[in-house]
Design a protein that fits this description.
The chain has helices at residues 18-21, 34-39, 57-71, 82-85, 95-110, 126-132, 139-155, 168-172, 193-217, 240-249, 260-265, 270-276, 287-291, 311-314, 347-358, 389-407, 450-461, and strands at residues 11-15, 75-79, 114-118, 161-166, 176-178, 188-190, 223-228, 233-235, 297-301, 306-310, 316-317, 322-323, 325-327, 367-371, 412-418, 437-440, 445-448. It is of the alpha/beta class. The chain has a single domain, classed as Alpha-Beta Barrel (TIM Barrel), CATH 3.20.20.80. Strands 1-2-3-4-7-9-14-15 form an eight-stranded parallel beta barrel, surrounded by four helices.
């Protein structure tokens, strides 16, 4: 009987992001981020919700960390808000902003919880949007590196696990669009797809320069990773033909070929460049060397995936000795959680890990699941409990997929459940809940859910229960 036991040194954790939980958006010198502006623009966020208060974690962090200790996690992934540290995006460092994270990290250490800090999780300074259009400009990469230097030189004595940027796709390809209003900040219309790809290229440059900045500024030895929400291609059945089809399709699924490929291999996928043609970004001399920095690990945010099969029932295209492939749409009744995109595909987690090693050829890189979880229609029952067995079902199956990857020798080292607590879910506001902890936004009361207790037992027994 498979007990789904994990290695003794496996890192069980939880994750959050600054704008989604902190609140205190005008406190102690912080100035607006693009998400402050976006969420306060009528019609952009469901119900007109904003992150002005969110979970008020800025004032409740000690109580929240006590709950983390109660959960039993030893690893916490959070993000640092650029507008708290350098409110104008460039120039003067706001030491009061640094002090908040210093207090936060000290409290984590007091509870024997290791901090894993993400340096950018979408909340860039509005001042830089006003100055030069944020990610439309190469200047953004340099300003980001300067911000990273300011943070790491001041907090590097307390934090030794750094993640540069979270999910480049979401603040570039979902933040800039041609002739339409995109769903994510800063919500800028551009004229061509080339301009969209240029924004993600600038974000890759920011990652590369930030990696260099961390190594130069850290007062102690540290570990550096990039976090990406790769678009996972999953073979509909694990035949050699379908596996090969999924590997081939990985290049053109989502933005993989232009984000994770250059970051980990030093070049854009040739299949993507051929596909883009004149819409490919302009790549200056030396850019790919900056982007392709040595990393200590890679973080993968995996929630779902896309099924793929070899075309023509698995027949081969003998011209290139590769199976042709097709992406499969989901049938109407396919099970999903409480987001339009959140189809339940536990094996996506396994295949995401496997693609890094096999499709990208980076078997050398330790991997972390830096986000995985689900939104559910949580309700407080008459007994004052949230019995979210649907979330437990989801996590149980994804944990089993993680276990499979480890049992087959893939270097998965940890799993950060998204999210520790309900929070501001971007354009969905407070309507969708991803947390292990229920937040009553009217009074900021915290209520642990059934999934919190279940996950605590998984951590306690170091296996899937």
């Amino acid at each position: 009987m498979n007990s789904y036991k994990f290695p003794d040194d496996f890192m069980w954790g939880i994750a959050t992001a600054s704008y989604q939980i902190e609140g205190a958006t005008t406190e102690a010198g912080r100035k607006p981020s693009v998400w402050d502006t976006f969420s306060q623009t009528p019609g952009k966020v469901l119900h007109g919700d904003t992150g002005i208060i969110a979970c008020d974690h800025y004032h409740h962090y000690e109580t929240d960390i006590q709950l983390m200790a109660q959960l039993g996690v030893k690893h916490y992934r959070f993000s640092i808000a650029w507008p708290r540290i350098i409110p104008d995006g460039r120039g003067t460092v706001n030491e009061a902003g640094i002090d908040f994270y210093r207090r936060l990290v000290d409290c984590l250490h007091q509870h024997n919880i290791t901090p894993h800090a993400t340096l950018f999780h979408w909340d860039s300074p509005e001042a830089l949007e006003d100055l030069y259009g944020s990610w439309r400009s190469r200047e953004m990469a340099k300003d980001f590196a300067d911000y990273v230097t300011a943070v790491v030189s001041r907090l590097g004595d307390r934090i030794t696990n750094w993640m540069t940027i979270n999910e480049i796709t979401c603040f570039t390809h979902l933040g800039y669009a041609v002739n339409s209003d995109p769903p994510h900040a800063p919500g800028t219309r551009v004229d061509t797809n080339k301009e969209v790809w240029q924004t993600s290229h600038h974000a890759l440059l920011a990652h590369g320069l930030a990696t260099q900045a961390i190594r130069a500024a850290s007062p102690t030895p540290c570990l550096i990773s990039l976090v990406d929400n790769i678009s996972v291609t999953v073979p509909i059945s694990e035949t050699p033909e379908n596996i090969q089809a999924a590997q081939q399709a990985f290049h053109l699924c989502g933005q993989n070929g232009g984000i994770i490929f250059p970051a980990l291999t030093g070049r854009y996928s040739p299949a993507l460049l051929e596909h883009l043609g004149k819409d490919a970004p302009d790549i200056q001399a030396g850019d790919l060397e900056i982007i392709h920095q040595p990393l200590d690990a890679v973080g993968l945010n995996i929630y779902s995936g896309t099924y793929v099969q070899a075309r023509d029932n698995g027949s081969y295209d003998y011209r290139d000795r590769q199976p042709s492939y097709e992406f499969l749409s989901f049938p109407v009744g396919y099970p999903k959680m409480y987001m339009p995109w959140l189809n339940i595909i536990p094996e996506s987690l396994y295949w995401g890990i496997r693609h890094i090693g096999e499709t990208l050829g980076r078997q050398d890189l330790p991997l972390f699941i830096t986000e995985s979880g689900c939104a559910a229609q949580d309700e407080v029952n008459a007994q004052g409990k949230v019995i979210d067995t649907d979330r437990i079902m989801y996590l149980r199956q994804y944990f089993k997929a993680a276990h499979r990857a480890i049992s087959e020798g893939y270097p998965l080292k940890g799993y950060f459940v998204w999210s520790f607590m309900d929070n501001f879910e971007w354009s969905y506001g407070y309507d969708r809940r991803f947390g292990l902890v229920y937040i009553d936004y009217q009074n900021q009361q915290r209520l642990t859910k059934a999934s919190f207790d279940w996950y605590r037992e998984c951590i306690n027994q170091n296996r899937v229960v």
